[in-house]
Write a structure and sequence with these properties.
The structure is a homodimer. By secondary structure, chain A is α/β, with parallel strands linked by helices. Chain A has 9 helices and 8 strands. Chain A has an 8-stranded parallel beta barrel with strand order 1-2-3-4-5-6-7-8, surrounded by 7 helices. The radius of gyration of chain A is 16 Å and the shape is globular.
Chain lengths: 215, 215
């Protein structure tokens, strides 16, 4: 049974440049994140593979899955635990064929149709958002809000990971709206102390009471 | 036996924007190119796969191999005939593992050590250059010239595809220096009539007398 984490920390070196992807992975894991996603949209492939390999090693020490955003080739090269695929990324069905049944595949969905197709194609979880307005992704679209999230989570037969504008001030509300977990970028990467920020989010997710059901 | 073409046309939509990758592939094939390489260094993966699929269909009609630059994931998605890998791209040995023995793998080498390592790792041919000064690649390095090419081609136990500043005015000299073939970007893509430019290069390669040996 693949375990889909409750706190997905997406590493980012565009919104901030104090920490590398590997440093962020180390801090996220130390703070208790149970999934780390490597997201890098430009740069040479060899460099991405080196970065992903370092992150894989860090995550493996703590048994935390490393999920690579979009780049199935990079995931294959480092034998990452999974990939996360947006609607403009590598197609889910092809990724499942190439990666096999054992790896985690997440799909970003902006609506129920995209979620259902993603699950049919082989996705293990569905990323949904943006829940709140966000500055982390320029093409994120309009905020969906907690009521739409609740309807979405009820309708989708897979764990829903909420994303977009989520941080310490609203994480508990997101969890109570039916999300299996949350994905964050700035709420960890752009904080003064990313490890402490992670630890705080883990505590808030735990305190929301939702995660007790399947932990 | 994998056949490594003598005229590799690299499609490009950065140096010119009149033609799409697929249009360039069609013109190159119509003009007699015996290898087409899809090279796109930025953009979303889904779009790259769609482009590569269109190019694959065009090339397959004429039995011309489509080679994808760098992106092993895109090559896998469209079952392309091969990949071409630079020193900053996906590693050759991993690519060979993932793609299997049947696909063409080319490696860019700037010196004999890189060429030998690439061949040990599983490359079928070696791209070598720049032979002449070129404006097509900003990081191409210093021109090697025909004498260095001749020494290189004698020393390397794989077909050498020369690249960099090659066009109708110097193609025959490159072939006579021991290259198995040439790779061109602007000499086709940036010409008024890419199909006619391809046809002319094919004729020059044939007239050089070198290709008769294994055709």
């Amino acid at each position: 049974m693949k375990k889909i984490g409750a706190l997905h920390v997406l590493t980012d070196t565009v919104l901030q440049s104090r920490h590398t992807h590997a440093e962020l992975a180390r801090m996220a894991v130390a703070g208790g994140a149970d999934a780390v996603q490597y997201r890098q949209k430009s740069g040479d492939t060899r460099g991405m593979i080196e970065t992903a390999r370092a992150m894989c090693d860090i995550c493996a020490e703590s048994g935390v899955p490393l999920i690579v955003n979009d780049r199935v080739d990079v995931a294959l090269a480092v034998e990452a635990d999974g990939v996360h695929l947006g609607q403009d990324d590598f197609p889910v069905a092809l990724a499942r064929n190439i990666l096999g049944a054992g790896r985690i595949i997440g799909v970003s969905a902006g609506n129920l149709d995209e979620a259902r197709q993603g699950i049919v194609d082989g996705a293990d979880y569905v990323g949904f958002g943006p829940i709140f307005p966000t500055g982390s992704k320029s093409d994120a679209g309009e905020a969906q809000g907690l009521e739409v999230l609740a309807d979405f989570a009820r309708a989708v037969r897979a764990p829903v990971i909420a994303i977009g504008g989520i941080g310490a001030h609203n994480a508990a509300g997101v969890m109570r709206s039916g999300a299996h977990g949350i994905a964050v970028i700035s709420a960890v990467c752009c904080q003064a102390d990313p490890e402490a920020a992670t630890r705080n989010l883990v505590k808030l997710i735990g305190a929301s009471g939702i995660r007790d059901q399947d932990d």
